Amino acid sequence: MYQFSPRIRENTAFLKRLASTKSDKKKNELIEKATADQILAIVEICANILSANFKLNKRQRRRLAQYADFYRDIAASKSETSARIKLQKGSGLALGAILVPVLSVLAQHLLAKFTS
Predict the structure, then answer these.
(1) DSSP 11
(2) pLDDT by residue for the chain (116 residues), tens digit each?
(3) Interacting residues of 48 by C-beta distance below 8 A, sequence separation 6+
(4) Could you tell me if 95 and 38 are in contact, meaning their C-beta atoms sit under 8 angstroms apart?
(5) Residue 39: its pLDDT value, please?
(6) How many CA atoms lie within 13 A of 25 on its CB side?
(7) Are residues 74 and 83 in contact, defined by beta-carbon separation less than 8 angstroms?
(8) How many other C-beta atoms lie within 10 A of the C-beta of residue 111?
(9) What is the pLDDT of residue 111?
(10) What is the pLDDT of residue 52?
(11) In angstroms, how far is the first alpha carbon of the chain from the final one?
(12) CB 80 within 8 A of CB 39
């Protein structure tokens, strides 16, 4: 099972809120107000999915494939500022599409940890 980094675990609430927000305007507001650590958590998720460190099923891969260039741009970001700008310019659908599978596995991971 994938071991989530502390950065992703600490920012789970922010990532859930960002993934569940439907409005692009509200997503941009959340990204504007996000801390550097929250932005870097998104960058880390993109990098891990692109390097196949995170398992996705066929349906999830197919859904994410249409936004592959957007994810590559984010994963290649060298700083929090450049990642923030790219996230604000990108599609809200692309952001939600990458966060939902990761958050569902993270929730299962945390649930299994507390029940065992």
Answers:
(1) T
(2) 567 788 988 998 998 898 888 888 888 899 899 999 999 999 998 888 888 888 888 988 888 888 889 889 999 998 999 998 888 887 666 777 778 777 777 777 666 766 76
(3) 2, 54
(4) no
(5) 92
(6) 0
(7) yes
(8) 10
(9) 67
(10) 84
(11) 15
(12) yes
| Single-letter residue type at 61 | R
Residue type (1 letter), 6: P
DSSP string computed for 41-76: HHHHHHHHHHTT-S---HHHHHHHHTTHHHHHHHHT
Separation of alpha carbons 104 and 90, rounded Å: 23
Look-up of token digits 């958590």 = 41
**Nearest to 103, CA basis, from 7, 9, 33:** 9
Element spanning 85, H or E: helix 80-89
Cα–Cα distances in Å, from 97 out to 7, 76, 81?
Answer: 20, 19, 22
Q: Are the CB atoms for 28 and 88 separated by under 8 Å?
A: yes
